[in-house]
Amino acid sequence: MTNGAAPDPADTTLDDLGTPTPDTTETPSADPAARFRHLPEPVDPRTLVASIETEAAPDPDGGRDANTEWMLRHG
Fold it and tell me: Residue ranges of region Disordered (predicted)?
């Protein structure tokens, strides 16, 4: 992984608790901030596509106005 790309999932192993741990065969750089010195190529937002279909979340109050009901009840 010397090109700065995302780690390959095949290089990740799971410990006893199932937590992903990076493969220890790769030696860390002397300067840990070196990988942040060069930014990746910019991505054009017009080319981005949603990968997961989403729906609007249901109204948690079920269409009722809790503040108005509280005011009418206790006002």
Answer: 1-75
